[in-house]
Specification:
Layout (H helix, E strand, L loop, with lengths): L1 H31 L1 E14 L5 E12 L2 E12 L9 H6 L2 E5 L14 E3 L11 H19 L3 E5 L2 E5 L1
Antiparallel strand pairs: 1-2, 1-4, 2-3, 4-5, 6-7
Length: about 160
């Protein structure tokens, strides 16, 4: 049990280090990136047969580093009678934002991601998921070590408890 507890604590520490790395990477990206408003050049809505899900394919146009650029953006959206699919005109009227890293701010420490969103906010890729896993594994490791210390042996009519 002690070995299992140590293994769980080590896994927790590794998750914490990976969580710290992803947090620092996301933070560097947010500081270096800029936002450009994009306009929809073309939109295509294709309902999938037999399912209440549609595939939406958008081509967005935006200005990147002073030059015109375009990016394809694919969405999947569910629909019902109460919430129908958006029309092509509604999709073209929706504001999209593209977040990218300009050429002068690119480095090997800053990822060169291009992200599309409906708002200019950046939510992060992983958030606190790895920190939650770290806390869970470390807590579980300590619990296994704490409650796994008692060793009960049964010998011919007597019970011994060792700490």
């Amino acid at each position: 049990m002690k070995t299992l507890g140590v293994v769980l604590i080590i896994i927790g520490i590794i998750c914490g280090l990976l969580g710290l790395r992803s947090y620092l990477r996301d933070d560097a990206y947010v500081k270096a990136s800029t936002i450009a408003k994009a306009s929809v050049v073309s939109a295509e809505v294709k309902p999938m047969s037999g399912k209440a899900v549609a595939s939406i394919h958008l081509v967005l146009y935006y200005i990147r580093d002073g030059f015109a650029d375009s990016i394809e953006h694919n969405l999947a959206r569910e629909y019902t009678d109460k919430s129908p699919l958006p029309t092509v005109e509604e999709l073209k009227a929706t504001a999209y934002y593209v977040r990218y890293v300009p050429k002068e701010k690119r480095s090997k420490n800053v990822p060169n991601w291009v992200m599309v969103s409906n708002s200019g906010e950046y939510d992060g890729l992983y958030g606190g998921a790895l920190f939650g896993q770290m806390f869970t594994f470390i807590l579980l490791g300590f619990m296994v070590r704490m409650f796994g210390r008692k060793k009960i042996t049964i010998k011919a009519g007597e019970i011994k408890t060792q700490l």
